[in-house]
Amino acid sequence: MANTPPESKNSRLIIAIDGPAGAGKSTVASQLASRLGIPYLDTGAMYRAVGLLAMQDGLEPPFDEGAATRVLELMERHRIEVEAADGGTKIIVDGHDVGEEIRSPECSLMASAVSALADVREALVPLQRELGMRDGGVMEGRDIGTVVFPDAGLKVFLTASVDERARRRLGDLRERDVDTSLEEVREQQQQRDLQDTSRAESPLQVARGSVVVDTTGLTLDQVVERLLEEVARIR
Ligand code: DC
User: Fold this and answer.
1) Residue 9: inside a domain
2) Which of 23, 114, 125, 214 could serve as a FRET partner for 71 with CA atoms 20 to 30 Å apart?
3) Nearest to residue 32, comparing CAs of 217, 216, 213?
4) Which domain, by its residues, includes 31?
5) Which Gene Ontology cellular-component terms appear in the entry (predicted)?
6) Which residues, including other chains, have CB under 8 Å from residue 158's CB and lie 6 or more apart?
7) What is the atom index within ligand 1 of the atom nearest the CA of 26?
8) Whose CA is nearest to atom 6 of ligand 1?
9) Checking DSSP bridges between strand 137-141 and strand 154-159, what pairing results, if any?
10) Is 80 within the bounds of a domain?
């Protein structure tokens, strides 16, 4: 369960940030939340934790018919805890902080695969709603503005060119000492984009009423300032 953040006048404001992989959502969302003094919830980390369990259990996409039941069993057997922590969302599986493990390229693809399973979404979305309704905050993912909080105070769709997104993701992975190439990152990202936008359950779409921000060529500060202007408008 998430920690209770300090009370503030913003405490029930929900800002939904959706967009494709590598659009800068996590960095922007975490910075925006800290500027506003409200919690930040990275919902992708929750799907990644489930992906990690599936990987450890030897599941491989594409999934067969029995996979959904197996993934649900894993979710029942293991304990996934979510905590809004300073600068990020802490994900604890069976008492271990899996923050690093869930960031591997393999886990990214697995997270995307498990997130297409209706049962997995049915289990995680209520938890995300509960956390959001209790504390408010900046919530980031693929379906926050379309499904989880369609009435969010502010809905943002962040995007960037395919090349820029691949370059950013490569930078992140290199910082974590993951040995990969721009070409490989671009391919994996395209595979994920395709899976995330074409799935039957809550596909990535621009939510009605979203502010669409193309972050190509923009600095983090420029994007955050732009969003702060949007927040000022709804207050
Ligand atoms: O945001 P991310 O790259 O950490 O997310 C990992 C995967 O989880 C992503 O490929 C799609 C899925 N996801 C989702 O389906 N819905 C969300 N709200 C967040 C993530």
Assistant:
1) no
2) 23
3) 213
4) 14-234
5) cytosol
6) 17, 18, 19, 23, 24, 25, 28, 213, 215, 223
7) 1
8) 44
9) unpaired
10) yes
Q: What is the pTM of this model?
A: 0.93
Q: Which atom of ligand 1 is the closest one to the Cα of 112?
A: 10
Specify the residue for token string 């899996």: 98
Give every CB contact of residue 197 below 8 A, 6+ residues apart in sequence.
20, 203, 204, 205
Which DSSP category does 61 fall into? S
Task: For residue 77, give the CATH number of its domain.
Answer: 3.40.50.300
Ligand 1 pocket test, pick from 40, 98, 142, 156 with the greatest ligand atom count within 8 Å of Cβ, gives 142
Pocket of ligand 1 (CB under 6 A): 21, 43-44, 47-48, 111-112, 115, 141-144, 192, 196
In a domain, residue 3? The reply is no
Q: What is the pLDDT of residues 134-185, one digit of tens each?
A: 989 999 999 999 999 999 999 999 999 999 999 999 998 999 899 999 999 9
* d(CA 38, ligand 1 centre) in Å: 21
Ligand 1 atom having least distance to the Cα of 148: 18
**63-82: burial string, b at 16+ Cβ within 10 Å, e else:** beeebbebbbebbeeeebeb
Tokens 């590598």 correspond to 22
Span from the CA of 218 to the centroid of ligand 1 (angstroms): 23
β partners of residue 138: 15, 40
